[in-house]
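Justification of computing resources. Each target in the renewal requires a structure prediction run like the one illustrated here; the chain below, 274 residues long, is used simply to show the kind of job we budget for.
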Amino acid sequence: MSSREEQLKAFGRLLDIMDDLREKCPWDRKQTFDSLRQNTIEETYELATAISRHDMNEISKELGDVLLHVVFYAKMGSEEGEFDIADVCNRLCDKLIFRHPHVYGRIASGGEQPFGITAQNAEEVSKLWEQVKLKEKGGNKTVLGGIPDSLPSLVKAYRIQDKVANVGFDWEKREDVWEKVKEEIAEFEAELTGEKGNELTNKRMTEEFGDLLFAMINAARLYKIKPDNALEQTNLKFIKRFNYIETRAREMGRELKDMSIDEMEALWQEAKKQ
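Resulting structure tokens:
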């Protein structure tokens, strides 16, 4: 691993290259905050994919791409006289210190110790963070105020429930959540008996299915399962198995569209054993 001096030198090299690109490359010079936004989202998802596959080489590569965007935005901010990379880093450092009074003590509170508590485990830290964020200058004014509107719905639902749980709005026993799940399943099934094609019924079905998903995500949280990770693992598993079916079908000289569901199911069972 690199020394701290080598790490700082590498970061400085990146900043120098960014300066060169903004001055000398037509494409880089043309970019704006708005034009880079979609690219940033794509790079973040590529990093998430690499993480889900536990591919350390790809994680390192994709982290570099995400870091490039951080440096790029900071460079544009400095050009507009709004902020630079030092401002970005210092604001982050200040926030981390303020949100970790159990680590930095009085430094975090400007000489005071308003929270007066320590955190012995990750759960206590999470609850402490929600208290700190509400006291943070320029921070969240409400418990749910810091959740980005653009978060994917699955992730947003988890964050909503995690945040309210940290201020005490939670099940006393995690097993109790299953009664809520059963209740939502029953309410959704009740809507299925409605008149087919009825616009109001379809709207209610959508609402009830959303309630069911919300309850299932809450169950995942209570059992310390990240639903987004769990679903992505299932996606990857399904893709792998279906690719097996396609490959075996080609080896048999068959087209999937010409195979019966029983034939495909037989290949699916083969795939599960691989």
